[in-house]
Amino acid sequence: MIGVMAANNVDIAGTVRERAARELRNRILTGALPPGVRLDLDAITEEFATSRTPVREALLELSYEGLVRVAPRSGVTVIGISPDDVLDSFTILGVLTGQAAAWAAERLGAEEVARLRELAEQRCAAAGLTLRIPAPRLCTDNGAMIASFAAHLLAAGAPPSPLDAATDPGLPVVQGQVA
């Protein structure tokens, strides 16, 4: 059984229960608390300088999330996340991202779109990339993007692509383009 060690950058916003749940969740998801580890309620209580009640509530919250198992007389054990959990998270993220993009497309004005471009440029620059956004006439459907890609390949001397050719979304992004 181990106690939870204090982290250097603990987020202190929220109630004690919220802070404890957030910090423990972060440690579980980052692997600092690996699956199978038994958590020491007294050590956690001491670390967060609080009573047992908010720590118990935080652990109960994590059990509802499936990150720990709370068993009477056995204590609290980290379950962690499985590869399937990660895949499920990406599926959910994809659905939510699509919904957010649809919502934004219907509601954002020119100023908001300009701000989004600024933020995208900053994120790309931080990653060492150059953001280039294609002209709107090229963003109408995937077919136009594939045709443009094929035209660039032909212009560069590549042989014509077969009819079933497409871009590979699994390839790393090294450059974006604004036309």
Q: For the report, how would you describe the main beta sheet?
A: 3 strands, antiparallel
Name the structural class: mainly alpha
Distance between the termini: 59 Å
Mean pLDDT level: 79
Portion in beta strands = 5-15%
Q: Report helical residue fraction.
A: 40-55%
Task: Write down the secondary-structure element order.
Answer: HEHHEEHHH
Radius of gyration: 24 Å
Number of domains: 2
The total strand number stands at 3
Low-confidence stretches: 1-6
> Strand order within the widest sheet?
1-3-2
Please explain how this structure is put together.
It is an enzyme of class 2 (transferase). Residues 14-81 form the HTH gntR-type domain. The chain is mainly alpha-helical and 179 residues long. The chain has 2 domains: 16-78, Winged helix-like DNA-binding domain superfamily/Winged helix DNA-binding domain (Arc Repressor Mutant, subunit A), CATH 1.10.10.10; 83-156, no CATH class. It has helices at residues 16-30, 41-47, 52-64, 83-107, 110-126, 142-155, and strands at residues 38-39, 68-71, 75-78. Helix 1 (16-30) packs across helix 3 and helix 2 packs across helix 3 (52-64). It is elongated.
In a nutshell, what does this entry contain?
It comes from Mycobacterium talmoniae. The chain is mainly alpha-helical.
Layout of secondary structure:
Elements: H1 16-30, E1 38-39, H2 41-47, H3 52-64, E2 68-71, E3 75-78, H4 83-107, H5 110-126, H6 142-155
Antiparallel strand pairs: 1-3, 2-3
Helix pairs in contact: 1-3, 2-3
